[in-house]
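Subject: design request, 122 residues
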C-alpha cells in the first residue's frame, strides 16, 4: 500500500494534481482511492461525480470520497467525545461548552487519518 498526501496552501492545485495522479494510478491497474478532507468538496467537481462520506466507484480501480467533518468525528470519535462531554458536564461545566471542549486539537485530522488505516485493513 502506498499513501500519497497532497498538501499546500489553498488554490495551488492540490485537488487537480491529486485527481490526475489517482486517475493515472487507476489506469495503470492499481486499486486507488482518492480521499479529500477539504470542506469545499471540489473533488466531486473534478470528477463530475457526487461524492460523500463513503467511497464511491468513479472509474475502474478508482474510488473517491469526500469526508464530512461531523460524520467523520461521529464515526471515528463519537463514543470518546460523548464520554468526555459527559465527564466535563458532570464536573459542572455547561453542557454546550463541554461538547466544544471535548473536541481536542488535531482530532479532525486524526479522525481523517483513521480512514487510511481502515482502507489498509480492507
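Subject: RE: design request

Done. Sequence follows.
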Amino acid at each position: 500500500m502506498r499513501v500519497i498526501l497532497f498538501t499546500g496552501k489553498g488554490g495551488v492545485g492540490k485537488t487537480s494534481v491529486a485527481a490526475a495522479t489517482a486517475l493515472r494510478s487507476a489506469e495503470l491497474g492499481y486499486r486507488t482511492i482518492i480521499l479529500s478532507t477539504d470542506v469545499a468538496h471540489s473533488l466531486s467537481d473534478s470528477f463530475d461525480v457526487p461524492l460523500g462520506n463513503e467511497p464511491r466507484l468513479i472509474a475502474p480501480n478508482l474510488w473517491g470520497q469526500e469526508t464530512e467533518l461531523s460524520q467523520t468525528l461521529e464515526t471515528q470519535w463519537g463514543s470518546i467525545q460523548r464520554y468526555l462531554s459527559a465527564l466535563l458536564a458532570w464536573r459542572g461545566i455547561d453542557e454546550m461548552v463541554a461538547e466544544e471542549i471535548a473536541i481536542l486539537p488535531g482530532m479532525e485530522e486524526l479522525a481523517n487519518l483513521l480512514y487510511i488505516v481502515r482502507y489498509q485493513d480492507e
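The longest helix spans residues 69-90.
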